[in-house]
Each structure stands twice: as C-alpha cells, then as structure tokens.
Design goal:
single chain; 239 residues; alpha/beta; Rossmann fold; 7-stranded parallel beta sheet; 7 strands; 13% strand; globular; disordered N terminus
Length: 239
C-alpha cells in the first residue's frame, strides 16, 4: 500500500469494550470541530449499533423541522474496504472522526491502519483497565501495516468519571495504564446527564438549551477535543 501525505486527519474513536462512551465522544467531537470551522466528517464504523448514524438521523429531523444546527455529515462504513474508504473520502475534509464498534472487527482493524491517532474512551473501573491488553495486541498488529510512517499514536480518554471522588479514581487509572505503556490525555470527561440527554436527541452538549444546558459538560468536551486536536493530531485551531 503506497504511502502519501494527506492534509486531512483521521481520528479513530475505538475500543474492543462496549459501553465506554465512544459514540458520545465521537458525535460531540464532531460538533466541536465544526464549531471551530473545521470541515468534519463523522464516520460510523459499527455495523451493529450504528449509534452515530442514529444520532445523525435524529439531528436531520430537527434540522428539517427548522432547528438551526451545525451540519454534520455522517456516513456508514464497514467491511474490508474501510481503510480505503477513509482515505478516499478524507480528501474532502479537514478531520474525520471515526466511531468504531465496541468489539474486534475488520472495520476497527482497518481504522487502526490509516488513523492518524486513536482515542480509546474508558471509565476508571478495573474491568475497563483489563480490556486494554486486547487493544494493545490489535495496535501492535496494525503497526506492521500502517499507511503512514511510524506507529499509531494511541491515547486513553478517561470518560464517565464520577463527579465525586473522580480525581483519585482518575489518578489511579492513569497509574494502572502507565504500567502497561498507555497514556491518558490530560483532560477527563465526567459522568453528566447532559451527555446522555444530547445523544438521545441528536444534539451535542454545546447545543442544549434551557435547564438541559450544562456549562461544565461543555467546557470538558471542548477542552478534551482541543487537547486531542492540538497536542495529538497537530491541528491548528482558532483560540
């Protein structure tokens, strides 16, 4: 497979563990990116749940009814051609946020070959931490087939962290991950109702209004995206 320089960036949001908030992170990252004037594509690589596609469908219904929202294009991809599809469609975008299903799949493996970085959401329970052994195996296998030079940069995003006692839990999780060679980004996402509400109604936390609006949730998501975009992907974002 030829190696050529791309101007766009592909951020994989994936894990072999389900229920860790991958789709919630992916759709919110896509909206934050669009709010910063990046041309963004949301790629749904989960042929089973299609959570990002369902979110996008609800969002289109809101737009059709007159709600003024940022346009987020979402496409479904699956099978052995995912790596080629991501590279081809990426020529038209600044950033592709690819949401991979919570299991080992051909699509996830293809994503690992072409992604510029992989973000693995995880909560702080021991059960979540133990699952990283499988991800490590997949990443090491993918590194032998990468379309760009160098190994896949992979980072953990501690997600669904308890608002009470979360600082200690996050510290212990970082130490556990470090023992296995994994790095967690500086920012964490706490367990907040705003994230669950938004996912159900086709919105990001940025777009919720009234009593549903949670500024702490907004600040956390923007900070996490900026951390990944600037420090992992090397994107230049407006201040």
């Amino acid at each position: 497979m030829s190696k050529k320089k791309r101007l766009s960036k592909i951020l994989g949001v994936g894990h072999t563990k389900g229920g860790v908030g991958k789709s919630t992170i992916a759709v919110n990252f896509a909206v934050v990116a669009a709010s910063l004037d990046l041309k963004v594509l949301l790629a749904d690589l989960d042929p089973v749940q299609r959570s990002s596609s369902k979110w996008a469908g609800v969002r289109r219904q809101l737009q059709d009814s007159g709600r003024d929202l940022l346009s987020i294009r979402c496409v479904g991809m699956e099978g052995k051609g995912v790596h080629r599809d991501l590279l081809e469609v990426g020529e038209d975008y600044d950033l592709i946020v690819a949401d991979a299903g919570g299991f080992d799949s051909v699509a996830l493996r293809g994503l690992l070959v072409v992604a510029d970085a992989l973000l693995m959401p995880a909560n702080v329970s021991a059960f979540e931490m133990w699952e990283f052994g499988r991800m490590q195996e997949l990443i090491e296998q993918a590194n032998g087939f990468r379309v760009s030079d160098g190994d896949l940069p992979s980072w953990v995003l501690l997600n669904q962290v308890g608002v009470t006692g979360g600082v200690k839990e996050a510290k212990e999780a970082r130490e556990f991950l470090a023992e296995d060679g994994f790095k967690a980004i500086d920012r964490v996402i706490h367990s907040r109702k705003a994230f669950r509400r938004g996912a159900e109604v086709g919105l990001s936390v940025l777009e919720q209004t009234g009593r549903a609006r949670d500024q702490k949730a907004i600040d956390e998501m923007i900070a996490a995206f900026r951390d990944v975009a600037e420090n992992v992907l090397g994107l230049e974002l407006p201040s």
